[in-house]
Design goal:
With 262 residues, the chain is α/β, with parallel strands linked by helices. It is built from six helices and 14 strands. The chain folds into two domains: 11-146, no CATH class; 155-259, Sandwich (Immunoglobulin-like). A six-stranded antiparallel sheet has the order 6-8-9-14-11-12, with helices on one face.
Length: 262
């Protein structure tokens, strides 16, 4: 049983409006689930169709989120709500990885992507191609699924990282701790590459961290003042790295976190 004290489960959802609009279609839901998503978001204006949607979604392996008022995530959003909506038609897809991960760093745990389609699953455009926003949505969904316990337990650390060089308004670096691990989330919301030198607090392990997005090792430099992270981010890129609190290497438990989505 879930209680009010339990951390929220991280979820990535896709806005779905039926085929025709207001009528849920099982084949649409199967396509959304087959793409790798676990939830659909349905407009509350079509509340009458919710029981049938829930039945079909359950058979397709999806949960249902019914929303009356979306909370659009923008490039100028402050601290977002626990639930946010990514209205893809008004955003540059190249910046979405940084945008959504910065929202996660600021507390978002339910992220719903809206491709703006009036009918159908919305995972292809009129030419049958996959819209660019689908790839960052899938990446986020896979990390959420593979590391759901870790993401749900993220709390801002009381000790903060500092940017020694390369600081800019487009760069954000946040440090989190959980009972088992340290997590750092770095994002670049600018149109130019970022190269920065980041100091993590003394006592944080310096050994190889693991990138949750691709499972690769991330090297740190051991220095008396604390680990140094030489960080490079392309425009719109996000880096999400993790290490065991007591680790001397990045292997073991943290590999399980990082590779869980494969």
């Amino acid at each position: 049983m879930v209680t009010a004290q339990d951390p929220p489960e991280p979820v990535v959802s896709i806005w779905y409006r039926g085929t025709p609009a207001g009528t849920p279609k099982f084949d649409d839901l199967v396509a959304i689930a087959a793409a790798g998503f676990k939830s659909v978001t349905w407009p509350a204006t079509q509340i009458g169709a919710v029981p049938e949607l829930q039945r079909l979604a359950r058979n397709a392996g999806l949960s249902v989120d019914v929303v009356a008022t979306p909370r659009p995530l923008t490039l100028t959003s402050g601290a977002p709500a626990q639930r946010v909506d990514v209205i893809t038609t008004g955003l540059d897809a190249a910046l979405m990885p940084a945008l959504v991960w910065r929202a996660v760093a600021r507390g978002a745990r339910f992220v719903a992507f809206d491709g703006g389609t009036a009918t159908g699953p919305g995972l292809t455009d009129v030419k049958g191609s996959t819209p660019k926003w689908v790839w960052p949505a899938l990446s986020l969904s896979r990390v959420f699924e593979g590391s759901d316990e870790l993401i749900s337990l993220l709390r801002p650390s009381t000790v903060k990282p500092s940017v020694l060089s390369g600081a800019s308004r487009s760069l954000d670096v946040a440090l989190f701790d959980t009972p088992r691990a340290w997590v750092a989330i770095a994002t670049n919301l600018g149109a130019e590459p970022v190269r920065a030198m980041v100091r993590l607090p003394k006592g944080v392990p310096y050994a190889a961290w693991v990138n949750l997005m691709d499972g690769e090792a991330v090297a740190m430099f051991d220095e008396p003042a604390g680990p140094r992270w030489d960080l490079r981010l392309r425009p719109g890129e996000a880096r999400v790295i993790v290490i065991d609190r007591a680790a001397k290497t990045g292997s073991g438990m943290l590999e399980a976190f990082a590779m869980g989505d494969r």
